[in-house]
Amino acid sequence: LEVTAAPVCGEGRERRGVLVVLYDITEIRRLERVRAEFVANISHELKTPVTSIKGFAETLLEGALYNHRAAEEFVSIINEEAERLSRLIQDLLELSKIESREVKPQPENLDLTAEIKEIVDRLQPRFRKKGLELNTGLPPEAVYVRADSDHLEQILSNLLDNALKYTPEGGRVAVGLLPGEIEVIVVVEDNGIGIPAEDLPRIFERFYRVDKARSRKLGGTGLGLAIVKHLVSANGGRVWVESEPGRGSKFYFSLPAVEEVEETGNYGRDKI
Ligand code: ADP
Fold it and tell me: Could you read off the pLDDT of 105-118 as tens digits, one per residue?
C-alpha cells in the first residue's frame, strides 16, 4: 500500500482535516514480479543449453576430437542441445507474438471433425513409433466451429505432443469431440503418468513443469500449455484439465460453435 497525505484547510486557512490517499499497488507489484520472474526464467532456460554446448565443444577442442567414439557422442549432444535452443526460441517468439496481440486470429468456419482427422493422421507415425495407440472418437457428420485453422492445429499438436511425451509405451491416447449449440468441446485423453492435484492450478503457466528433469529429457520447453491457453482464449474458447497421477489426464478446450446457416429461398414450398 502506498500512502500520501495533505492537509485540508478552510477559508480562514484553519486546518479542517487531512486528506489521506491510499493506493493499492498490489496488482502493479504482482505484475512487476511476474515479469521479473519471467525474464529470470528465460535467461536460465537459454543458458542451460548454451553452457552444455560450450562445455562439450571445449572438451572436443582440448583433445576429445581425436577420440572417434567420444567425438561422435559429444557432437550428437551438441546437436540435441542446439535443437532444444531452437525450439525454445521458436516457442518464446510464438508466445510473445500472441501476447502482444501482433497476430490476430483469422477465424473461419472449420469442420472440426475433418481437421482433427487430418492432424491425427499426420501425428500417427510418431505415436506408433513409441508403441502408443492414438484413436479418435468423432461423430460421423461435420461439426463446425469458428476458429483460426493454424491456431487449432497448434493447440491440438501441443496437447497431443504432451500426451505422447507423458504416456509410457503401450499406453492409449484419444481425441474426442462433444458438439454443442454454443461451443464445441474437444478432449485429448491419455492414460499416462498424470498430474498431481497440487500442480494442476499452475500447469498453464509459462515454464511451470511438474518434473523439470523429465520434461527436459523429453525435449519439453515448458511453454506448450501456456501457448495453448493463449491461443484458445484468443479464439474465444476455454481450456481446462482433469488428471490423476498414475491414471492419466484429460485436457479439454472449447471453441465457439457455428450457428446453423439458415436456408434461404423457398424451394419445395407449395406455390400459392
Ligand atoms: P513441457 O514442454 O514441459 O511439456 P508444457 O507447458 O507443455 O511444457 O506442460 C507443462 C507441464 O505439464 C509438463 O512439464 C508436465 O509436467 C505437465 N503435463 C502436460 N501435459 C501432460 C500430460 N498429458 N500428462 C502428464 N503431465 C502433463
Answer: 999 999 999 999 99
Please tell me what DSSP assigns to residue 167.
Answer: S
Q: Which amino acid is at 175?
A: V
Alpha carbon dihedral 52, 57, 62, 66, in 10-degree steps, equals 120
- Cα–Cα dist 25/31, whole Å: 10
Atom of ligand 1 nearest to the CA of 226: 6
**Torsion region of 131: left, alpha or beta (phi above 0 gives left; psi -120 to 50 gives alpha):** left
Give the separation between CA 76 and CA 61, rounded to whole angstroms: 15
Q: What is the CA(169)–ligand 1 centre distance, in A?
A: 17
Which residue CA neighbors atom 21 of ligand 1 most closely? Answer: 162
Q: Which atom of ligand 1 is nearest to the CA of 188?
A: 23
Q: Would you state the pLDDT for residue 261?
A: 54
Q: Which three cell numbers stand for residue 143?
A: 461439426
